[in-house]
Amino acid sequence: MYPIHEYAPSHFPSLREIPDVPATFFMRGTLPLPGTRMLAVVGSRDYTNYGKQCVQHLIKGLRGYPISIVSGLALGIDGLAHEAALDAGLHTIAIPGSGIADSVLYPRSNRHLAVRILREDGMLMSEFAPEEKSMPWMFPARNRIIAGIADAVLVIEAKAKSGSLITARLAHEYNKDLLVVPGNIFSENSAGVHQFLKIGATPVTSALDIVHALHLPERTEETTATVSYPEGTPEALVLHLLREPKASDVVIRAIQEKHQLSVGAVNTLLMRMELMGEIVSGSGLLRRN
């Protein structure tokens, strides 16, 4: 259904900067449009809820920009990045540590994601022969392609010995912009990220930080309608309270006290606002989307 084609590395000029450039690549799907900037997103397989929220929030904020999200189709942050890209209407490139034929695509549990990527005009890409099964040595080799094809590499959660740090180190060696999302200092998933902050990686706390790193102009037009609630309504109070993330019980108690609502009524209101995409809940916290 999605044929495999061979392409020369010249389709991706940035790959000329890496050593041992493959003579050919095997690809399925749709190439990114000319002028598209490549953002590699890598991170922990064992991500936290914070890491998941960061992936979704940052990539959602890139909607409408000429950016392709590049990652390795792996479990964890990789898979979340591909999904978030598709949800945001962005092109995405999956570079697995295997061939790209359906019979060998790795990991098997993400083959449904590979199908979605192809169906929604993304691309699978590998230097390995289409039917070549995954082997441990393929992953470091694949990581150099991810780092090489990217204009910038974003790391979201990585332990001190995480495999994603290989991609980050290669990005540094290839003179690519290295971006990291700062994490909880008490979490082992932040140890690898903070290593790179110490040597000058760019901290990312918003989608605009990524836009600037990719040297793209900011978009000035409104891309989504902003919901406005009349002053004095419970919804308006929720948005006012969530100018900074707050514990769910703090928000619920404040709305109860101000508007004399039952806990059930407040929870229904918050659920409705979450379904509308106005707020996000997780780990006992609420924040604006």
Automatic annotation (TrEMBL):
One of its GO terms (biological process) is DNA-mediated transformation. Signal peptide: none annotated. Residues 13-214 form the Smf/DprA SLOG domain. It holds the Pfam family DNA_processg_A. PANTHER family: PROTEIN SMF. Belongs to the DprA/Smf family. This is DNA protecting protein DprA. It comes from Candidatus Kaiserbacteria bacterium RIFCSPHIGHO2_02_FULL_50_50. The lineage of its organism: Bacteria, Candidatus Kaiseribacteriota.
